[in-house]
Amino acid sequence: MSMPRVSIVIPTRNRIEALKRCLDPLIPYVSRHAECSITVSDDGDAEETRKALTGELSQVEVVQGPRRGPAANRNNGASRTAGDLIVFLDDDCIPEPELIERYQEAAASHPEIAVFEGRISAQGKARGFTDGAPENETGGYLWSCNFGVRRALFESMGGFDERFPFAAMEDCDFRFRVKRQAEILFVAAARVWHPVEGRLGWRIVKHRVLSDLLYLHLHGLEATRKGPSFYARKAARGLVYTGTQRLAEGAIRHPEQLARYIWADLEAAVILYFWKYHALLARRLFPPCCAGCESIHAVLSGKAEGGAWPTAKHSPMR
User: Fold this and answer.
1) Residue 132 CB neighbour total at 10 angstroms
2) Number of domains making up the chain
3) How far is residue 145's CA from residue 195's CA, in Å, rounded to a whole number?
4) Residues 6+ apart with CB under 8 A from 27
5) Would 159 be classed as within a structural domain?
6) 283: how many CB neighbours lie within 10 A of its CB?
7) Are residues 145 and 93 in contact, defined by beta-carbon separation less than 8 angstroms?
């Protein structure tokens, strides 16, 4: 059985130690298989990252990212590779040593499949309402921190939509577009571990909701099957389910973060109820705090369209 060429693409920014933990399990396999490669697209300082990766890690190709967010950073990394199968991982994940081999086996055994969804397991326990980790134990999510896609499909779709400036909803948008064209196969053996992490502050919540609104703006409420009741129920679940679960676990640090999420979901419900005025309400309820916010508001208001694939493509370096 002929194994496909695999290009691992990892976006990063100022997280050298996490990146090293992600790379360590992958290097032995890549060292033995010339058809596999690893490319890190660094939205921070690529030269500093190259200097920090010594020994076996020095064989990893590090390219400078475009500094326009994770979606653009992944596209940039993918455009620098030549593998038939592109596997996306995040720098804060810890892959199991056989991950690349499992993707190769799945791709070789199922030539009719173009997208392969990996397994994501949480590592650690939450200590409060800021803590969490993406989990995908049975498939159906296509989170960007662990999946593979054949290059032909990825490029025909235009990659990730770079109008998503934050690490939120860009993978949901990709999955929405993929499902119109291709079947997705869940590969449970292709597993990564995602440490439980804490994210505190109103900006985190605002960026998530604005990304949600951008997704709904691009695809429509009917197509996404979202309405005001979706966010109202989400707020209720956050209060009842998440609240009681954290209390039962004794993980009650930073309860104000839960309140922020619940309040934001209720505001999102209001915006969807008055969807005709969503651009105006979004700016009023979630005013911009950075260039990423401004770019989303520009799309919502019809002042910018943006693009999906980098305007300057790069020739593969391998």
Assistant:
1) 15
2) 2
3) 12
4) 38, 56, 57, 59, 60
5) yes
6) 17
7) yes
Give residue-wise pLDDT tens across range 204-237.
999 999 999 999 999 999 999 999 999 999 999 9
Residue 292 lies in a domain: no
Same domain, yes or no: 142 and 244: no
Q: What CATH number should be reported for the domain holding residue 81?
A: 3.90.550.10
- Give the whole-angstrom CA distance, residue 163 versus residue 75: 12
Is there a single domain that holds both residue 110 and residue 213?
A: no
Q: What are phi and psi of 68, to 5 degrees?
A: -130, 20
* Whole-number Å distance between alpha carbons of 272 and 216: 9
Asked if 187 and 222 sit in the same domain, the reply is: no
Q: Check if the beta carbon of residue 48 is closer than 8 Å to that of residue 12.
A: no
Q: Are 220 and 100 found together in one domain?
A: no
* Same domain membership, residue 137 and residue 255: no
Q: Which domain does 17 fall in, by range?
A: 6-198
Q: How many helices (H) and strands (E) does the chain have?
A: 14, 10
Question: Residue 111, SS3?
Answer: coil
Where b means 16+ CB within 10 Å and e means fewer, 186-221 reads bbeebbbbbeeeeebeeebbbbbbbbbbbbbbbeee
In terms of domains, do 95 and 139 share one? yes
Kind of pairing between the strands at 36-42 and 6-12: parallel
Q: What are the tens digits of pLDDT across the range 47-87?
A: 999 999 999 999 899 999 999 999 999 999 999 999 999 99
As a whole number of angstroms, the distance between CA 79 and CA 310 comes to 9
Residue 48: which residues within 8 A CB-CB, separation 6 or more? 16
Report how far residue 97's alpha carbon sits from residue 102's, in angstroms, rounded to the nearest whole number.
10
**Pair (133, 207) in one structural domain:** no
Task: Return phi, psi of residue 69, to 5°.
Answer: 105, 170
Within this chain, do residues 177 and 45 fall inside the same structural domain, yes or no? yes
